[in-house]
Prior knowledge:
Elements: E1 3-9, H1 13-27, E2 33-40, H2 46-54, E3 60-65, H3 71-81, E4 86-89, H4 101-109, E5 117-123, H5 130-147, E6 159-162, H6 163-168, H7 179-185, E7 189-195, H8 209-228
Amino acid sequence: MDLSVVIPVKNEAGNIAPLVGEIVGALDGRALYEIIYVDDGSTDSTAAEIARLQASVKQLRLLRHAQSCGQSAAIRSAVKAARGRWIATLDGDGQNDPADIPALWRIAEGSPSMPPLLIAGHRARRRDSWSKRQASRVANAVRRLLLSDVTPDTGCGLKLFPRALFLDLPYFDHMHRFLPALVLREGGIVRSVPVNHRPRQRGASKYGVFDRLGVGIADLAGVLWLRRRLARPDLVEDAASPEEGLQPARPPGAAAPNTRVEPVR
């Protein structure tokens, strides 16, 4: 399978059907894909709505957390269960536009396998409240200054990356906010692409401005520590192939190769 679209959700029942319809419309005929929703301890009908749609959308899968563990944990659960070589992540609130996924997918298809690539969406025109935009602007500036992650909008939920790359990254709560820095730490590259951003139509945001800032400071310190503790070995290949200079073991009494054996007289 080419692509697994991963969507963590909590209490987003009203956004499930519209978003699934948009994903199907964007990807049908363009890739072999699946859609993995992770219900992170919802208390509304989110899981029931996803289960209802599975009857008509065969690509749709549902994972459930018994209790809320957070967005990073939900993404990790989905990536571990994914069948696709590449992972596309979307926020479940409908603000990310699935119509942007094919453009990111074309970039991925034309990229070499090494170094690994993270394609990060950049919400050039954010459709959020003034307070959220200001908080993000400050947080992005501080993060870029300290981490040098060359990413203007690390908080955008729309990203595309190889499954194997994500599974190589160190896991911690809120790691999804620092994927560019973590990918660079692994020797990968990051490419930011402008994407559409839409106002929320249904439901309520799960994060407040001060919630984001509070955990962001602690997590930023943790990522700085991870960078300082990095030890990535450079593997040196022998000049000779493994077969050269090696001879198969001989049973006792056997002659060495290319040795003439005189008959016993």
